[in-house]
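Input (structure):
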């Protein structure tokens, strides 16, 4: 009799896990994937929506197009999780699992920064990217402030990619000389993987005349006065505020007992939680060592989880441990894309190699997206 694997969430991790199980264990498992949304989109696509290069409809990949043997997608919203019984309640019904995998990602808490919803913009949601696109069409100059509003957050390069692409947009529209750009963030340096990686982003900010304000956290906005207040008590004036919203685990996880101090703790060797046959991967989980919240790491974790589930069923030896490794591409504007190859868990410290932005890496990034579209959606 086939075992039932229920995957909560159809992002990078959930989609890759479903594909892997279909390819390697379709004779042993039936997979149900649950997600509250009806379509997937790559995180980097929101930058194109922000700039008006693509519409939200252009970048959506409907889940109805998933066509993998032994995989069923259901658009349902998870409202409760019993990790002991491995039972999931949704807005439509309930699902019982032999193996339960939590890959629900991170939600955004817009209200965590007072004044942000009324006085700011963001591009981490498609709707937010569309609103920012419309605001940019009316913007003729002034003070632009791009701020990271909390940690952890998805995709460490994304706040700086946004700044680089806004610089490019203002240059192309002929108003860059009328714009003062600054970025604030609570970290000591941008993209704090290694000093060498951070310096690539620091140099790019400086070259573009974007003021870097590290270890500065915006805690609230005064939309009427167009002023951002920092944790230090200092204030910064703005005409256009772009924030990376505070992230939090999806609502059902705290009540389920899975989340501890906000996120789901796992054994980083195999992504198992403290509950038997319950895994967590991607943005929703945490471990003793830091692995950033990014799709590529969720994807590599999914491969380990798929192999571990297969080994559990067959009685085979467990797979090699999760390494927290991947390749990250970052937009620098002008058609140039940088690349960072990184491993967070294999050695005693993080190992990373940076590659300067080039058009060749832009082509690699396009291929990265095309490969996953074809693998997960057959298109």
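Output (sequence):
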């Amino acid at each position: 009799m086939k075992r039932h694997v229920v995957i909560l969430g159809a992002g990078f991790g959930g989609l890759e896990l479903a594909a892997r199980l279909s390819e390697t264990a379709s004779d042993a498992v039936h997979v149900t994937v649950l997600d509250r949304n009806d379509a997937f989109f790559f995180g980097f696509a929101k930058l194109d929506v922000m700039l008006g290069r693509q519409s939200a409809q252009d970048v959506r990949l409907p889940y109805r197009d998933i066509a993998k043997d032994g995989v069923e997608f259901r658009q349902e919203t998870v409202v409760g999780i019993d990790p002991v019984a491995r039972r999931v309640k949704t807005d439509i019904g309930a699902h019982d699992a032999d193996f339960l995998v939590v890959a629900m990602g991170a939600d955004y808490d817009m209200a965590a920064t007072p004044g942000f919803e009324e006085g700011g913009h963001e591009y981490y949601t498609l709707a937010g990217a569309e609103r920012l696109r419309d605001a940019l069409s009316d913007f003729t100059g002034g003070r632009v402030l791009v701020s990271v509003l909390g940690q952890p957050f998805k995709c460490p390069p994304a706040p700086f990619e946004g700044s680089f692409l806004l610089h490019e947009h203002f240059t192309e529209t002929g108003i860059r000389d009328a714009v003062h750009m600054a970025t604030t963030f609570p970290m000591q340096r941008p993209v704090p993987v290694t000093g060498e990686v951070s310096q690539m982003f620091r140099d790019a900010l400086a070259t573009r005349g974007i003021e870097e304000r590290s270890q500065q956290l915006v805690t609230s906005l005064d939309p009427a006065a167009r002023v951002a207040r920092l944790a230090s008590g200092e204030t910064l004036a703005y005409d256009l505020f772009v924030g990376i919203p505070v992230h939090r685990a999806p609502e059902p996880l705290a009540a389920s007992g899975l989340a501890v101090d906000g996120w789901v703790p796992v054994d980083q060797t195999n992504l198992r939680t403290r509950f038997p046959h319950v895994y967590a991967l991607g943005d929703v989980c945490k471990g003793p060592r830091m692995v950033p919240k990014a799709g590529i790491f969720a994807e590599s974790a999914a491969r380990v989880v798929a192999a571990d589930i297969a080994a559990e069923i067959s009685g085979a030896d467990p797979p090699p441990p999760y390494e927290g490794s991947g390749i990250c591409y970052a937009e620098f504007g002008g058609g140039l894309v940088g690349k960072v190859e990184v491993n967070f868990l294999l050695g005693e410290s993080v190992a990373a190699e940076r590659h300067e932005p080039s058009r060749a890496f832009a082509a690699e990034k396009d291929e990265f997206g095309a490969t996953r579209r074809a693998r997960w959606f057959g298109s």
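Notes: The chain is about 30% helix and 30% strand. The mean pLDDT is 97.
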